[in-house]
Input
Amino acid sequence: MARIIDTAPGCDMPALRRTPSALEVRGLSYSDEVKAETDHLYEEVKDFITPMEWPGIAPLVHGINKLKEERNAVILAHNYMTPDIFNLVGDFRGDSLQLAREAANVDAEVIVQAGVHFMAETSKILAPEKTVLIPDMEAGCSLAESITGADIRLIKQKYPGIPVVTYVNTTADVKAETDVCCTSSNAVQVVEHVAAEWGVDKVILIPDKYLARNVAAVTDVEIITWDGRCEVHEQFTADDIHGLREAHPGVLILAHPECPPDVLEAADFAGSTSALSNYVSERSPNKVVLLTECSMSDNVASANPEVEFVKPCNLCPHMKRITLENIFDALKDMKHEVLIDEDVRLEAKKAIDAMLALPNPKTARPFETGLAPKDIETLSPAA
Ligand code: 13P
Ligand code: SF4
Output
């Protein structure tokens, strides 16, 4: 049984609340057949879905799993998906780097991206022969929206000869203008690699200014960044950490590197969504807080029932646009297809391939906590 102390109970539950009409309009019902074929699945989500809610969810899960077979489709589910999607219909689950690797290798005709738009674009860039669907085209990202390809062209004019490393949370247009991509799993590794390869001591790392400052804290490479922020992680503060430590003595605090640098300074460990998840599984702490998107605690908690989770709730409104209903609709009607202009795709692919060619980030330098934040040059659209 997952042990969760929810500091904002129910805040991530709207996606799980269903009305009977959500099934009726899709021609679904909790029939004897559906019940027989889904009963065994309930065990995996029993901590998050009540027995009363299950008859509203099981037909969607059953319908999606049938459609996946009919369409030869797979669902790539990011760690921030709600537990129903993550556990019951996701075929591959992970952080953005792991999902990108799966997209490149997966043997299926259709990919449904249970994540945000830049992730679906990454899949399409790497698997152009596959049909890539996103259940809601509006599932964006504040980082991806913070910068354009034209911004990058101006930056390159201003800093000729300095490599541009782009966080994967960007549009295909932006990736097409850059030299190498990175994710939160490998940002330090990519920056150090590209600086050595180009023989420079300075790298442009955009668009997340907090991620860039967190990289700058652990490397001697000089970093120039962009004034972009994740609207979810920027809300965490060092004061939150002090409050959590006071309220829960001995609690272990893990933070995503999109959090501001003073949060990493005060935390116990920092890393990508999968690095945080692995850390919990490997260390099995008594009590833990994940300073990242809300649903991730639920997903890590269900895999680690012996660990107690304190759950501060910051929702990503974009990730939460993806629901069982719109995944079902996406597979049924083969919508919404993600398409990318071929010239842009080929350029963007070079930057992603350069990242994927690096050795496994597990052996690379991780983020560190306890380090004093460094100030770095931060560009903005007006610059
Ligand atoms: P990860 O690469 O750690 O999965 O992060 C993606 C993301 O959007 C975090 O907010
Ligand atoms: Fe973008 Fe932040 Fe949402 Fe991740 S959590 S998709 S970085 S807005």
